[in-house]
Each structure stands twice: as C-alpha cells, then as structure tokens.
Specification:
alpha/beta, Deoxyhypusine Synthase, 6-stranded parallel beta sheet, 3-stranded antiparallel beta sheet, about 50% helix, about 15% strand, globular
Length: about 350
Amino acid sequence: MADQKKAFLRETIEHFDMTRHDVVPLVDSMRTMAFSARDLHRAADIFDRMLADKDSAVILCLAGSLISAGLKKVFADMVRFNMVDAIVSTGANIVDQDFFEALGFRHYLAEDRLKAGLDDGQLRELAIDRIYDTLIDEDELRICDDTTKIIADQLEPRPHSSREFIRAMGEYLESKGLHPKDSIVFEAFKKDVPIFCPAFSDCSAGFGLVAHQALRGDEPKVSLDSAKDFLELTRVKMASGDSGLFMVGGGVPKNFAQDVVVAADVLGVEVPMHKYAIQITVADVRDGALSGSTLKEASSWGKVDTAFEQMVYSEATLAVPLIAGFGYHKGSWKKRTEKRFSRMLDTELALPAGKVS
C-alpha cells in the first residue's frame, strides 16, 4: 500500500514566481486586442492604479482551490511587497492548503487519467484526496486538522474572530521555529495583514474546533464569531476610507468584502464605495449567483463605484499571474505605506456607532 501511495504522490505542485517574469510588455500588448485580453489589460491597469493610490487600501479576496493550484507564492509575495492590506478568503485556501504547506506538507500533480474519476475508489483506499488534477495526502491533512485543535486548546476560551485565530496560526508557526517560505499565513502574521475567513468552520480548522469543543464539554471553550469578523473588516474600511478589491473567484469572500460599505452605514459612518474593483471569475451572471454577478450590479447596492471596475472571465491560474505580475513589475507598491491593520484591530476598543477610530 505504501509503495502504491508513493506512486501517486511523486511530483509536487510548484508555485508560480511572479517576481521572475516581467509580464508588463505582454499585458500592455493586450490593450489593443479584444475580448478577454483587453479586459485583462484594463484589470491590470486598475490594479496598478490601486497600488499607486497611496491613500487606498487593497483587499484581496480568494475563493476556489488557488493555493493547491500553484498560486501560493503570488499571494505571499503580494503580502510581502505591501501590495495587499487585508485578505478575505475561504478557509480551504488559508488552512487546508497554505497552513498545510507551512507545516511542511505538499500538494502533488495528478496524472491526466485521474481527472476522469475512475480511480477515485483506489485513491480513497490509499487515503489520497483529489482536487481535479491535484492530489493531497489525507493522513497529512489530518495532522493539519489536529494542529488547529492544538491551537484552539491554547487560546483563551472565548469567541474569536477568524482573524484572531489565523493570527494565532502564524504565532504557532513562529513558536515552532518553522518560518515557512512563501506562506500567506506567516507573511501576513509578520506584516500585520489581517486575514478573514467568514465561513471558517468549512475547512480543516472546523474539524479542529469540533474536536476542541467536544472534548471541552461544558467547560469554557473557543468559538468563532462571524459577526466579529464582519465588524473588524468594517473597521478596516472605515479606517482606510478609499479601498480597492482584487477578487479571485466569488462566493462568500466577494460578498463579505463588498458588504462592509453597507455595514459602515449601519454604524452611522459614511464611507465611500469601493473605489477600485476587479474580479477574475468563470461564473455566469445569468443564473443570479453572486459569484458571477457583475461589479456594475454591485454598484446598484451602493458597494462598488463604476469608474474603475473590471470583470475578467478567465480561470484564475491564467489571469492572476498576469494581473498580479503586472502590478509587481510596474513597481507602484514601492511607494505605499504599510497599514498593518491587524495591529489596529488588536488594540482597538469597541467602536461606538458614528465614530471612526
């Protein structure tokens, strides 16, 4: 069985390095093309505008299996080079994939024949999980689950925002002397960039928290407070004023980040709509699903301004390296000031309605 498992888990996913490939001439050449190429160029230009606007915060939204697909270093570099000030993500990207690799594990290439699904029964017997053309060792993933329980056991038994828990994950990595290369969680911990996972229990952290709460019984225990997440990200918006969204995929991260404009209004604080917004998606707008709803539609809700918005209908592993790489090599990030919103959120007292801290 062990030899069979090794036969499947041979070649690792390697993460794209946007710093090594100057894509500016390529993306610039798309300006005079049509269809998705021109849309992608405009999105890249808007991202560069976000970075050049020193008064604007950049919020990165991540949905879909992006880290396992080879984009981890792109996002870690965006944090490292001050190209993003806050992250809203699915739990899978942050815990099952990024933190999983930070613990020393890897994702593997699946042979083309496995994409048909005919071998999934054998993979199950070998404790191998498949994400389309990517493989994960389930036994290693269980270690990730157990690690989140260890972290929960060490936290103060009270409701926490997902940001607080993820920051504790970064502290855990540092305390163990792991200092993982190109980890989003660890880079964000070092740079005080808050990471929010509004549906945090829907990932390995959920399994760890289930175990933590079950074993605590009637004793005080750690829980996740999604309303606290919402309030904290709203505080980020109120503190920053102007803001831009770089959205990969849709779902909960997209809506959560857009909704803070309305949440601020509920608190009696008038903030501008998101000044910049780009979204990379393959979702269709016609079925009414949020993942495919256009940014112009979001404007009707008072969430996104329409002056600098662009939808890019493309699979993420194709578009993200081009748009993020364009922003990196244009260099506007070099003049940005670190916002370190996590530090603000850790020290801030409850915010009365109608006041910006």
